C-alpha cells in the first residue's frame, strides 16, 4: 500500500528517536514516503497533493490535533467529501491532547497507537467519520473567508479567547500544559468585556434564534477535550456519525463559571453542562453564529482570529479513517 507519513517535527510528545522507530515499523508494512512539515499549512499542502496524485492510498498524520486538521483539509480540498475515492486517513498522536485520535478510540501513547494502526491495516479495519465545515456567511464582513473543515470542535467567543491566549504563551516559549490552560481561562474571564452580556446569536432554520450567548462550543464528537486522562463532555451526544452539536452559555458571572466549570469537570457520556443559562442543540445539519462585535474563533484548537459571523454545516461520511 502506498502511504504518505506527514510528520510534525515539533510535536510535543515525540522525539526524533521515537519518530525513527515509528517510521521503521510503518515502513515494514507500507510503501512509505515520509515528509516533515516545515511551516504552518505544509501538512495541508502535502495531503492535497496526495489526494490529487491518484497513487497514494493512505495519509498518516504524526502530530497533534492541528496537524490532523491540516491533513483532513488537504485531503478534502480538491474534490470535497468522498470516503471511498480519497486516500484513507490514519492518525498517530503526537500532540499534548490528541482529541481526535482518542475520540476514535486510539491509545494516547505513540508506540501503542502505531501498533494499533498496523493491526487495523492488517485486519482491514476502517470507518467513515463526519466532519464539520465552517465558512464565512454571505452578506457579512466574513463573506470572503474560505471554508475550512474541523474534526472535533470549533468555538466562538469565550473558549476561543482562551485558545488564543494559550497560543500567545506558546509563541513565547511556554509549554502546553493543563496548568497553562487554566491560567488563561482565568485571564480570559477577567479580561472578557462581554462575559455578562453576550453578543452571539444562534440562528437555525425554522427555529427562533437564541440571542445573548457569551460562549458557543460546536462539537463534532464527544468528548470535547481531555484534562490529562479525564474526558470532558461539552455535548455528550455528539458523534462522528451525526451532524453537529452546540453548547451555548448566556452568562459567565463568577457563580455561572463555577457552576458550569464544575459540571464540565464532572461531565460524563450521559450528562454535560445544564441549567437556565445553558443552551444545547443536537445533530444540527446547518446553523449560523452571528455576533454584534468581532469575537475570537477557533477550530480544533487553532486560533483563527476575530469573526462576526460563521456558517456551520455538519457533513456525514466525509472521510474514511483507519481505526
Beta-sheet strand percentage? 25-35%
Structural class: alpha+beta
Number of domains: 2
Mean pLDDT: 93
Instruction: Give the overall shape.
Output: globular
Largest beta sheet, briefly?
10 strands, antiparallel
Number of H/I helices:
8
Q: Can you tell me the residue ranges where pLDDT is under 50 for at least 5 consecutive residues?
A: none
CATH topology descriptor of the largest domain:
Tumour Suppressor Smad4
The CATH class name of the largest domain reads: Mainly Beta
List the helices and strands and how they pair.
Elements (H helix, E strand, L loop, with lengths): L1 E6 L8 H12 L3 E6 L5 H12 L4 E6 L1 H12 L11 E6 L5 H5 L6 H14 L2 E11 L11 E3 L2 E5 H14 L6 H14 L8 E4 L6 E4 L1 E5 L5 E3 L2 E3 L11 E6 L4 H12 L12 E7 L1 E14 L2 E21 L1
Parallel strand pairs: 1-2, 1-3, 3-4
Antiparallel strand pairs: 5-6, 5-16, 7-10, 7-15, 8-9, 8-15, 10-13, 11-12, 13-14, 15-16
Helix pairs in contact: 1-5, 2-3, 6-7
Task: For the structure shown, list the relevant keywords.
323 residues, Rossmann fold, Tumour Suppressor Smad4, 29% helix, alpha+beta, four-stranded parallel sheet, 2 domains
